């Protein structure tokens, strides 16, 4: 096993200190039942909030379950022990509320005038074509 030099350790500590200053981390989090939002206070003084229904694993949670949010020791995540759900702070801030499949399901639920018009036009043609066997 190779030894790690003091210089490598010092460089890693420096990178960690820089990351602590620059990267968003959660200092505290709580559920605001009035606005129906999970509110996250960041270490840089900013506040971030999101509706829990968007978060993977939180879609069907009760207000009491959502209110049991915990900040991970690193500050990089939120954890709900009873729901066995974790969401990352960088991901949430980037608009990612779960896995790729979860995000695709969220996008598919969207409503827009264009989507409604396309559905009406498709319905006027007899609806979605049936799948052909053997194709």
TrEMBL record:
Residues 108-123 have a biased composition (Low complexity). Residues 108-135 are annotated as: Disordered. InterPro entries: DUF2442 (IPR018841). This is DUF2442 domain-containing protein. The lineage of its organism: Bacteria, Pseudomonadati, Pseudomonadota, Alphaproteobacteria, Sphingomonadales.
């Amino acid at each position: 096993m190779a030894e790690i030099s003091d210089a490598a350790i010092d460089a890693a500590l420096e990178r960690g200190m820089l990351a602590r200053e620059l990267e968003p981390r959660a200092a505290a989090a709580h559920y605001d039942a009035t606005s129906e939002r999970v509110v996250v206070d960041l270490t840089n003084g900013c506040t971030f909030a999101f509706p829990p229904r968007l978060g993977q694993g939180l879609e069907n949670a009760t207000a009491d379950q959502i209110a049991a949010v915990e900040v991970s020791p690193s500050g990089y995540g939120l954890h709900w022990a009873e729901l066995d759900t974790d969401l990352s702070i960088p991901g949430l801030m980037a608009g990612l509320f779960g896995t790729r499949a979860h995000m695709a399901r969220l996008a598919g639920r969207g409503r827009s005038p264009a989507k409604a018009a396309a559905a009406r036009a498709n319905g006027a043609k007899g609806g979605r074509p049936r799948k052909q066997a053997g194709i």
